[in-house]
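S1.2 Input.
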Amino acid sequence: MSTTETAPPASQEFHRLSFTGNAAEYFGIWIVNILLTIVTLGIYSAWAKVRRNRYFYGNTVLLGRAFEYHAKGKQIFIGRLIVFGYLIVYNILLTAFPIAGIALGVIILFFFPWLIMRGLRFSARVTSYRNVRFDFKGRMGGAFVAFMAGPVMAFLSLGILAPLASRWMYRYIGNNLRYGGRSFATDPRLGPIYKTWFLSALIVVLGMLIVAVVAFANLPVIAALIDDADALSPDSRTSFIVLAVAGYLAVVLSFGIAALFYRAGVRNIAWSATVFDGRHPVQSDLSRGRYVWIALSNVVVTVLTLGLMRPWAAVRMARYVNEHTAICFDGDVGEILAAVEQEGTAVGAEFMEFEGFDFGF
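S1.3 Output.
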């Protein structure tokens, strides 16, 4: 069947992605991956990653066609062997010859941007849609700025410059992504990112204030414990331990909610500032509250079921994210995709064979 027969007519509507997988189906893949990874002492994890990605990519659908994942377990396994081998050599040198170990650590630090760039390129090139491969044209310098300089700058500024780091990262990825030889472009504005950051910062401050108020209300108990722990009754010590654990969880929860809130907001801003081939806008409209609820409830359910509900959680999140991601084609969709397919056949041919290693971390 031709592309023009299956693709919808010209429209200014945003065409949303969908996820057609289900938890019961993925559970079978997940449990086999877990068992084989355990039996093979982790060796099978590379092939497990391929099976998992093929399932999720194969159930991510746009305009009636699914994405495909073409990586092989051997490629991922070799990449992991290289990283594992480096870690062994590094630890041996660090123990026997500390100076040489430190030097090797510095060397890999300089190679880290290259590894990130190669990982992004690998992930793009083993992904296809309508038999057309994606590609990634980023360079080491951009990877250094986006994934090393940016996070360090955000950390040293106590998070104040995190929006700038996020902007660098999304620009590096979005501006270097290709599909069938045609490029994506993204330039998220800093102002909206800072608005999202400010709301996330308020969540952290609110969480810290709640902990501070509770701690202040129990200041006599804390002071007595510091002065002489034995002077407190067993019930008071138990109450203090419970209070300390609750305070710790409150801090972790506030930072976790803020991070999820920020991630969803920045994703909406960055993806909605992305254009494919100069005229086809992309859109993300995640509800930040709903995203946070799904992520947190997924963690709770997974923990309470000792991990057995992890497939349900993964499918649930994938479905929500896909349903809130869309693209609007400016013109006849059939003609646009047919032209991309024609060009993409030649562009993607060189990726059909062995395509490097996946240096994932």
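S1.4 Remarks. Residues 80 and 359 are 7 Å apart (CA to CA).
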